[in-house]
Amino acid sequence: MKRPPFPAWLRAHPSDRRGSLWLALVLLVAGLLVMLVWLAGRYEISQVQERLERDTADAVSDIRSALTRNVQALQSLYAGSPTPGSWSVDAASMLHEHREWSRLEWRDPGLALLAGVDSPFRAPVFDRMGRDNARADIAQACLTARKYNGPAYSASYFVPQSDGLGMEVMEMCMPLVTAGRLSGYVVATYSLQGILSEMIGQAYTRSQEVSFTEADGTRLALHGSVRRGNRVFTAQQLLDLPGNTLVLRMDGWRSAPDLFPNVLTALVTAMSIALVSVLVLLRNDMRRRQKAERDLADALAFRKAMEDSLVTGLRARDLQGRTTYVNPAFCEMVGFSAGELLGRGSPAPYWPPELADEYQQRQAIRLEHNHAPAREGFESVFMRKDGRRFPVLIIEAPLINVLGRQTGWMSALLDISEQRRVEELQRASQERLQATARLATVGEMASLLSHELNQPLAAIASYATGSLNLLQDTAPGLEPGLAKGSDLQLALRRIAEQAERAGKVIRSVHDFVRRRDQLREEVSPNALLNDIMPLVSLQARKLQVRVRVEVDDGLPDVLCDRIMVEQVLLNLARNAMQAMDLPDLRDRPLEFRVRRAASAEGNRWLEFSVADGGAGIPGDVARQLFTPFFTTKTEGMGLGLSLCRTVVEQHGGYLDFVPNTPSGTVFRFTLPAVANRKAKVPSIE
Ligand code: ADP
Q1: Nearest atom within ligand 1 for CA of residue 657
Q2: Coil/strand/helix, residue 238
Q3: For FRET with 15, which of 44, 275, 572, 585 sits at 20 to 30 Å CA-CA?
């Protein structure tokens, strides 16, 4: 088969493929989560940066407007044509309000100092350096101021202080114009540090560091909080003043490197953890499912293999009698395919039409009463697709689902036609065997018969000769008629008696040999014994055996196959007599006894026993006694006892033997009695 061109990883074994898919999913989710956290962090950082930029811009505009206000304040010093003295007073008071100023000066148009006041908040700035060193800066600022005709600023410069430190200052020069003419300058020395601390809102400097820097980043003045954290954010903004441009820089810190910088990131992270947990749970669940799936598949495969290899037919029906399942063995048994059987209600296609009504009723009763048939099953007859009937053994049980509710019936079916055939064969061969055994017995008895019939026949012959003689006798002195008549009568009666006896012997042999099907009839124990007595007596007389019969009073009839039971009695009697055929044995008793069986069910069984006074049965013989063809006699067939036992067991009884006292053996067997019936029923022969 040509495989579709899937990529290699898809063509792989399903479990490998599932593994790669899982790996891909985990990697994707992990990548997504890392990116989310990173983006959230980035977003927050950008927020911080943006705020800082905004703050810087605001700070710059704060400074610019403050500078403008300061210019206006300085202009107000010249409102009422001041003298240097009055100016100094005003300027000093103004310096009280403006800490950013270090010094205020009034200079004439030639830049000569008219008046100057230092800030009261610190020592005079130029004490150490000398004010003259700043001239160049002042001149430059004032030059620019004149050019713009407005306030202008000098470049900032460093002024060392007497305390060893120093400060960065910047000059502001504003031309004073009176009636269109330059009348002088007012010069304000700004401390850059002062500008930062006084002109920018507290809010900016509380959490950030504000500084003026040069273009190369050198800090000129610094104001603000101490460093907190190690993550620095920086924003710069130009403060463009006439004559000078300053760079305002703000530095902000983040307190920690912050894996979870804010709520958003924390939220994303928590959700990520939840997602990963769900993923793990999902994977565990998936594993459990896969295992369950595998187990289920195994169990299913096992069940299928088992059902397919079963020789027992299986059939399930729902509560409406519709077939819901059949296994291959069942299909094979009835010859219908599963498709033809599934979903079919009654009558089922494998029911013989002539029995369908009966089966239908049986099923209706089962469904209605919902009771299970006997566990050992029942026999029924089914029909193959080709119409042949066959016997089946059906064992049915209720089908219970997982909720414990009955959903139908499950049946196991066995085709017992083969079993029936074997049984039939066995029965036939057993019958043949029995016939053979009977014939063997007959052969044996034929010699006895010839011997025994000799007696009556010889008697008949002599009586006949005697009669003939009497008829011919013409002896003188006698009244022939009288003597002849009474003797003849006697002789003829004897002849008749002997002939009848001979006939009885022959009839019993005939009856015995005639092969008959099993027929149960009610027979009294006496009748059974009487029937065999002539044959027994024949042999008994020959072997000088004393026969005794003892039948308890009031015994019921037995229900049996008369001829077969007689054969059993004959066999046992014959064995007994042969056992006593020992040269030096004087007393040879043969005793028949019939009584109620000694079992708990004594009322229902009669026990027949045949006892002899022979040598008994040695152990090794006893073990094989009932084995067919086992015999210790040269002319024996070894079938007698095994047949006897079969016959007795067919009647439901048992056959066994015990030693007799003082010597010999007692063979006993039981037969079922007719319940509560003592009256003799005429035999149906
Ligand atoms: P057969 O009489 O043809 O030998 P049986 O099956 O009737 O076959 O008996 C089997 C054997 O059991 C006999 O050969 C004999 O040895 C022994 N047997 C049977 N009945 C008696 C008995 N009453 N006493 C001693 N031995 C017996």
Answers
A1: 23
A2: strand
A3: 275
Which helix (H) or strand (E) element contains residue 608?
A: strand 605-612
Euclidean distance between CA atoms 643 and 298, whole angstroms: 54
Residue to probe by mutation, ligand 1, list 588, 609, 641, 658, most atoms within 8 Å of CB: 641
Q: How do residues 26-80 score in pLDDT, each as one tens digit?
A: 888 888 878 887 887 788 788 888 988 998 999 999 999 999 999 999 998 888 8
Q: What is the token pair recorded at 507?
A: 């009839």
User: What is the reported pTM?
Assistant: 0.43
Name the 3-class secondary structure at 237: strand
Burial 37-50 (b: 16+ CB within 10 A, else e): beebbeebeeebee
Q: Which of 147, 126, 243 is nearest to 189 (CA)?
A: 126
Q: Are 367 and 319 in contact (CB under 8 A)?
A: yes
Neighbours of 611 (CB within 10 A): 22
Instruction: Compute, in angstroms, the gap from residue 621 CA to the centroid of ligand 1.
Output: 9
Q: Residue 539 has which token pair?
A: 């042999």
- The distance in angstroms from the start CA to the end CA of the chain is 80
Domains of the chain, each with CATH number or no CATH: 55-253 (3.30.450.20), 310-421 (3.30.450.20), 441-516 (1.10.287), 519-685 (3.30.565.10)
Ligand 1, atom nearest to 667 Cα: 23
Dihedral sign of CA atoms 308, 312, 317, 322 in order:
positive
